[in-house]
Design brief:
alpha+beta; Nucleoside Triphosphate Pyrophosphohydrolase; single chain; hydrolase; NUDIX_hydrolase-like_dom_sf; NUDIX_hydrolase_dom; hydrolase activity; NUDIX_hydrolase_CS
């Protein structure tokens, strides 16, 4: 099921009546799974999301909320998606970190919530270890001292990224790196009730059936597959020319 876009609307909100938030679908690309959260008291499934902090970049907010609500460190993926934003690189910016969906949700009779949904990936082992080591410096729990991972390198292909999750074990055979799930990353009592799982994409969509969140996963995974095909085609053309 694909959601349809709502009709455009005119609306005006002063700062004290507007809340801006971000959500994220976090993929483990190597195993074709996506992070889905479950509210253990209220009994529903959802993708991690939340309000951005004052002066915080919205993409950073999506990554941080993804970590706080699911326990998985993540970074937004540049993908070949259609959008209406100007391209400062004169049309050469094929892969972008734009929202896949944006929702307008009323909070009260007089206040508005704007929620943008992004696609992200779990981080590779070296990035996880670097961020975990950095967050442990200073007082308090390392899971509370959130460290933003470096962005997905623009020169890195998805095939190269997949190879980074193949690790050699003691016997010399390859195993797939399992992303680390941090415990106790929720920032309030409600978030501490969340349980997160890395589910196969089909299963995750079934859990979220009929919601915009299901369509976020669908759109994101289609964009991942498209980027893979584009990069594979370019690689093949380069081999032919050489």
């Amino acid at each position: 099921m694909s959601h349809k876009a709502s009709a455009p609307v005119y609306a005006n909100f002063p700062a004290e009546k507007l809340t801006i938030g971000a959500g994220v679908a976090i993929f483990h690309l190597a195993t074709e799974r996506v992070v889905v959260c479950y509210h253990s008291r209220d009994g529903y499934w959802f993708l991690p999301k939340g309000r951005r902090n004052a002066t915080e970049d919205t993409i950073h907010a999506a990554e941080r909320e993804g970590f706080e609500e699911s326990g998985y460190r993540n970074r937004v993926l540049p993908l070949p998606i259609k959008h209406r934003q100007p391209d400062p690189d004169e049309g050469h910016q094929r892969f972008v970190t734009e929202p896949l969906w944006t929702q307008l949700l009323p909070l009260t009779a007089t206040s508005q919530y704007i929620l943008s949904w992004y696609a992200a990936e779990t981080v590779p082992k070296d990035v996880e270890e670097s961020c975990s080591n950095a967050s442990s410096v200073g007082a308090g729990s390392s899971t509370r001292n959130y460290v933003t991972p470096p962005p997905f390198p623009m020169t890195l292909t998805l095939r190269q990224r997949l190879a980074m999750d193949l690790l050699a074990n003691a016997s010399g055979t390859e195993t797939v790196y399992e992303p680390k799930r941090h415990e106790g990353t929720g920032v309030d009592e409600d978030e501490l009730l969340y349980i997160s799982e890395l589910l196969p994409i089909k299963d995750a969509r079934e859990k979220l059936r009929g919601s915009v969140m299901e369509d976020v996963i669908r759109r994101a995974w289609e964009a991942v597959q498209l980027r893979m095909r584009l990069e594979d085609h370019e690689r093949a053309q380069t081999v032919i020319l050489n």
